[in-house]
Design a protein that fits this description.
Structural class of chain B: mainly alpha
Number of helices of chain B: 3
Shape of chain A: globular
Number of strands of chain A: 2
Number of helices of chain A: 20
Oligomer: heterodimer
Helix content of chain A: over 70%
Radius of gyration of chain B: 17 Å
Distance between the termini of chain B: 48 Å
Helix content of chain B: over 70%
CATH topology of the domain at 26-90 in chain B: Helix Hairpins
CATH architecture of the domain at 26-90 in chain B: Orthogonal Bundle
Structural class of chain A: mainly alpha
Strand content of chain A: under 5%
Chain lengths: 481, 100
């Protein structure tokens, strides 16, 4: 195989996603007004093709493009997750887009572009490449947040996301420039060799690392950079919120792990306390603020902040089992949250009016299947045994204890208990409260039903049979050796 | 020859002005301009380091940032126009439909 082709193999998922995205944009210009639903189908096919292309990438697990891109088990794991998320988001949003009268073409193209950016983030081995991936996914996300162009809330969500997002990117860049100035390289594996060779991080280096952490902390929505999250999640179209809570978060954590463990792994004393403090703050702020929310989207936004805190606990453990636990939890959390947001999309009614917790009263008798799936998702987020969320929390708890961090482990357990209050509140409203006004939920359509079914199966399946996923996660965690 | 530290101080000043602008100004267009200022501070940094270290990587990085700033400005201004059409205002403290 020629080197150029071998390099292209490792980027196959990214190239496929971008290719289909461009195809959709071009197709949009030529298709008649009534034939746009074809674009949505091309979108789903494109996301599935990108997922299939991950297996192509797996044939060439090595450095590519002179070390800018690294394809290993870790990047394959996250790319698979990202494209699964993309497929599910697309399936769950078709009916929403039709109901709200939003254009289909651009939406699916933007989703594919965002996914390709996230895939670059998952396999970047160098700070410039990481930045390019970050921006491809972010810029597409800004547009998606404002996709309901005529709705003020959606505008506001996009504007807030854009201003704070580009501010954070600027911090990331300033940090990357510092690291470059201190070491003369932006490649993470070269940085690692420097630290292993015994070089101590100087002040310029520390400042650079801190600013990179600020930038990524924003993207991953961890405290104290989480203020934008509830506003953006509430105002964005619900299927887009489903994407934000799963895809970009997974990609941001991938980059965080890659930079901290590969780049600064041998100097982990420099970032350990920052992650420790951030983990504690994130867990408590997320869970405590979620207690008082009445809007379901806002409540799940705070819940997503809390879960980012649990993921940071796994990162603070600084061990292979910690990273494996982080990856396992990331999959479970992303799929379950996506399922929950899909149900919110489905019940939203035109104009997204049905979003209050009280509006879910009586769902248990009116649409038992939907209520049942929602209950599984909420219980999994809560971490009840037999759901995948329980095992995920258990693995993180275990890794924290093995890393001699009993404080973090105890706070993780405490936060799970706080979380129980607001998750169970929604379950109680669905089953045991009668609505003030009679309402009939719209029938579940094929796309929404498929997403609900698949994510619910995942929430239970990974809980009862964690073996295969955990094995894959463990192999992925070993790619940092 | 001007020493590298001069460029770094200039860059730090621009960065500080940019951050202060983002935090204190109310008009979103000016906030956007402040963010561009920070990006240019980064560019000065990178090019100065590139000359100091005698490696070309920093300049390549700067070109990527310039390109990205253009893309970001295009999308950002589009979002700002959409917002202005609905709300007839550009003041950040009037963005209160969603609790900030």
């Amino acid at each position: 195989m020629t080197p150029a082709l071998a390099d292209a193999y490792s980027l196959a998922p990214v190239i496929t996603a971008c290719g289909f995205g461009i195809l959709i944009i071009v197709g949009d210009a030529f298709l008649p007004r009534g034939g746009k639903s074809l674009l949505a189908r091309i979108g789903v096919v494109g996301a599935l093709a990108s997922l299939a292309a991950v297996t192509l990438a797996s044939r060439h697990t090595d450095d590519a493009y002179s070390g800018l891109i690294r394809t290993d088990a870790f990047s394959l794991f996250l790319e698979s997750l990202i494209f699964v998320i993309t497929v599910l988001v697309m399936l769950g949003s078709y009916d929403y887009l039709v109901r709200e009268g939003l254009p289909l073409g651009e939406y699916h193209a933007l989703l594919l572009f965002a996914a390709s950016g996230m895939a670059v983030m998952a396999s970047a081995n160098e700070l410039l490449t990481a930045f390019v991936g970050l921006e491809i996914s972010s810029i597409a996300s800004y547009v998606l947040a404002g996709y309901r162009r005529t709705a003020s809330k959606s505008n506001e969500s996009a504007l807030k996301y854009f201003l704070l997002g580009s501010f954070a990117t600027a911090f990331f860049l300033y940090g990357a420039a510092m690291v470059y100035g201190a070491t003369g390289t932006t490649r993470l594996d070269v940085l690692r060799e420097m630290f292993v060779a015994g070089r101590a991080p100087g002040p310029l280096m520390l400042l650079g690392c801190a600013m990179i952490l600020v930038g990524l902390g924003f993207k991953a929505a961890v405290a104290p950079f989480q203020v934008w999250t509830p506003d953006v999640y509430e105002g964005a179209p619900t299927p887009v919120t489903a994407l934000f809570a799963s895809g970009p978060k997974a990609a941001a954590f991938a980059l965080l792990v890659r930079i901290l463990v590969t780049g600064f792994g041998a100097a982990n004393a420099t970032w350990f306390w920052a992650i420790w403090v951030s983990a504690v703050l994130t867990m408590f702020i997320g869970n405590l603020a979620a207690l008082t929310q009445n809007n379901v989207k806002r409540m799940l936004a705070y819940s997503s902040i809390a879960h980012a805190g649990y993921l940071l606990v796994a990162l603070a453990a600084r061990s292979e089992i910690g990273i494996a636990a982080l990856l396992y939890y990331l999959v479970v959390y992303a799929l379950v949250t996506l399922g929950a947001f899909t149900i919110i999309t489905h019940l939203g009614e035109p104009g997204e009016r049905r979003l209050e917790i009280d509006a879910y009263a009586g769902l248990g008798t009116r649409q038992p299947f939907t209520a049942f799936c929602m209950t599984i998702f909420l219980l999994s987020l809560l971490g009840l045994p037999i759901t995948a969320g329980f095992l995920g929390k258990f693995y993180i708890f275990d890794s924290a204890l093995k890393a001699q961090l009993p404080g973090l482990a105890v706070m993780l357990a405490m936060n799970s208990v706080i979380g129980a209050y607001y998750y169970l509140r929604l379950v109680r409203v669905m089953y045991f409260t009668e609505p003030e006004q009679e309402w009939t939920p719209e029938p579940v359509t094929a796309g929404v039903g498929a997403v609900m079914f698949l994510t619910a199966v995942a929430a239970l399946g990974f809980g009862l049979f964690p073996g295969p996923l955990m094995t894959f996660a463990t192999i992925s965690a070993q790619s940092f050796r | 020859m001007i020493p590298t530290s001069h460029y770094l101080i200039l860059s730090l000043l621009l960065f500080t002005i940019g951050v202060i602008g983002v935090v204190t100004r109310r008009n979103v267009v000016i906030i956007l301009m402040s963010i561009e200022l920070i990006l240019n501070a980064v560019n000065i940094n990178l090019v100065a380091f590139s000359r100091h270290l005698g490696s070309i990587d920093g300049q390549a990085f700067a070109i990527f940032i310039i390109t990205d700033a253009a893309a970001e400005a295009a999308v950002g201004l589009g979002i700002i126009i959409a917002y202005f059409r609905n709300r007839q205002t550009l003041l950040a403290d009037e963005m209160d439909l969603l609790r900030w």
